[in-house]
Structures are given as structure tokens and as C-alpha cells.
Design a protein that fits this description.
The chain is mostly helical. It contains 3 helices and no strands. The model has no long low-confidence stretch (mean pLDDT 94).
Length: 74
């Protein structure tokens, strides 16, 4: 397993904000892995959109469109 870009605590807080009373470390780790995978897919799509538009800079609109596509695909 590769090293994560993110600490576990924000993912535990998100789960608690969603209504969990207690969150195991394993649940936080799995949630983090899933969110990172989805985020990477969105980022890759956003980069492709910017390249397709002839830009080297990824814009907020690229990220928004990539996220909509990712949600629609799932």
C-alpha cells in the first residue's frame, strides 16, 4: 500500500459530521483510500479537459466538469 497524501483525522471528522458517533481507524483508512481514488480520477479528467482545450493550466471549470462526469459514471 502506498503512502497517503492525507492524514486520517479529516476523514474521521467527515464521517462524524455525517452522523457517526464513533469511527474505527480502519473505517477512516478505507474512506480515505476511496476518496483519494475518486479525487485522482477527477484530477486526471480535469487535466485531460485542460489539454483538450489547449491549456496547460487546469481551471476550476475543468475540475467541476470532471467531477460531474465522475458522478454520472458511477
Amino acid at each position: 500500500m502506498s503512502e497517503s497524501e492525507f492524514a486520517l483525522s479529516p476523514f474521521e471528522r467527515i464521517l462524524k459530521k455525517a452522523g457517526a458517533h464513533r469511527v474505527s481507524d480502519e473505517a477512516s483508512r478505507v474512506f480515505r483510500e476511496i476518496v483519494e481514488d475518486i479525487a485522482l480520477e477527477i484530477a486526471q479528467e480535469a487535466v485531460e479537459l485542460s489539454k483538450h482545450a489547449g491549456r496547460r493550466t487546469v481551471l476550476a471549470d475543468d475540475v467541476k466538469l470532471a467531477a460531474k462526469r465522475a458522478v454520472r459514471i458511477r
